[in-house]
Structure formats: C-alpha cells, structure tokens
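cron nightly-structures :: item 1 of 1
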Amino acid sequence: MNTDPQWLNWARELQALSQIGLTFSKNCHEVKNFQRLAEISAEMVQACTGFESSKLLESFSAQPGYATAKIDVRGAIIRQGRILLVQERSDQRWSLPGGWADVGEYPSAMVAREVLEESGFTVHPKKIIGVFDANREGRPLEFFHAYKVVFLCQIMSGEPKISNETQDVAFFDFNNLPELSPNRTNIRHLREIQAHLSQPDRSAAFD
C-alpha cells in the first residue's frame, strides 16, 4: 500500500509525464507544455516542503529519457548468525552495504563492488532475497521512484574497512540491532533475510 501523501504521488506522476513528453516531443509547442508540467511538479513540492523548485528542476533535467525506476542494490552478509551493517556518514545510522546501481555492470557485480567499497569485504552473491518497492515503506527514498534489490552474499575474504560514505562496519545480532537508516534498510528487509536463513529454499520476496 502506498503511504506517501497524495500531493507527492501527483508531483511524481507530473514529473514522469513531463520527462517522457520531452523525450518524444516533436515541436516547440509540445516542449513548452511538457516543461510547464515539470515546473508545476517542482512548485507543488516547494509549496509542501519548502524545497527550492529551481533545485528540483535542475535535478529533473539530469534525468533525461523515458522515466523509469532507479535501482538500489544491497548485500546481506552473515557471519556466525550475525548480520553485517555499515554506519552511514550522512545520517549516522546503519544499513546493509550497497547503493545506487551503475550503468554497464551486472547486478551481481554491482552489489559485490558496493559491499567491498563500503565494508572492506570481498563477497560472492548467492541468491536474491527480495525486490522491494523503495517508495512504499514509509518516507520515500528519493523524489524519483526506486526499487531495492537485496542479495544474500558469502564472504570470500577481507576485513572491516570504512569508506568515504561509511564510518563504521560491524556485525550485529538480529535481536540487538543499532538504529537503522530506514530509507536504505528497514526491519522488513532484515526479517526477510532471517526467513531465508531459516528456509534456504525460500523464494525471493517481491512487491
């Protein structure tokens, strides 16, 4: 169920229509109309949040082409029954290591690279825990729609190591977790990981 405020759903839809329209517009009249849709979307967000519409429009222009969901990949790494989490510098909270997917990489290679960069561990992705709609689990991850793919990974080598995005790396008991960074990792993701650990043949979860 979508728990976002209706104004945000409308603003997202207007922005997506604008982006798609600008991609396929054939004359200046169409371009002008679809640019105005983007402006209305940005103005709605500014009116409801105070965020500068000019900055939103700048962000919109950096997302050309057909509007589609962004992909966030996360690695679930278990050692002796404990889950690996990293502490984010941006909000001081904890999450599964991972981040936005880059163009040109296999999904498995992306999550392995993100885990190595953020935690110091070389891992081998074993299976997909789940594919989650990141915009329908409380406060939205971003203005843009996003999916989150969580992989169960096996440690091959390495040791805890911080990065420019993470300030601590540690393993935690599932029943004694630190404060989570909810837009990155939430209790639902961790419960699904636990379910896969107790049921190795469990199918991937999906929204």
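cron nightly-structures :: done
Residues 6-61 form one domain.
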